[in-house]
Input
Amino acid sequence: MEVRLQKLIAGTGLASRRKAEAMIAEGRVMVNGRVITELGTKVDPGRDHVKVDGKHLTSAQPYVYVLLNKPKHVMSTLDDPGGRPTVKNLLHGVSVRVFPVGRLDFDSEGLMLLTNHGDLAQALLHPRYHVPKTYLIKVKGVLTDDEIRQLEQGVKLEDGMTSPAAVKKVKKAEANSWLEVTIGEGRKHQVKRMLEVVGHAVLKLVRVRMGPLSLGDLAPGEFRFLTDREANALRALVEQRLTSEQEGQPMRRRRKPSRRPAGWARPKRARAL
Ligand code: URA
Output
């Protein structure tokens, strides 16, 4: 994936973006053996050889991808002006500056990706790419099939209709029930607002999947680095979205909600909670 030269340099931690721009303008940066002074120049970190002051840049700092299980009552940001705990407090021993890819509410839990790979983060967050995110939710009451159908087809929120969602019944009890909801959008409080429209309060929300990544058995508050296979799958997803866009194909097929038989399954993840 191509990135702007100054961004690549800044992403390695060698210099701030502005300083990197100055370095380029001063002729201190070479790409594939040629001095580059133009600021908009794009390079592919996987293919191009970048040198700053004669030293290879790519060996300076590789991309880092962290998968965290955010516990509830922790901010999904790196700083909080209100002094509440943030995900940064949980990343013990991660010396590279990584940034959260998207948000989870203060009282939500689950999968968060943090990375220093800015372009990949931006692409994953872009509404155009519709990266699927799956939430395991506990709601007040039990949804009727008609309410589930409404969620699957899209409901009207104050900021517009939601795209079709996939909804799976997981488990029900007397007073509440568990569902798995998969959406491709990422609007603020989206899942809670969708459920509110059909008359059910969300009591607990855990993000369990995002694109090719799964939370698995990671305990709340713990993190791990992505495996090479996971990082490659993420990059492939972004590349594939970029390619289909360049080829003028629609970003996403609007899937018809599937007709599932009624009945409440109880998959593994619900038991683990
Ligand atoms: N939807 C919500 O309502 N909250 C979250 O934290 C994530 C998705």
Remarks:
- The CA atoms of residues 99 and 114 lie 5 Å apart.
- The longest strand covers residues 202-210.
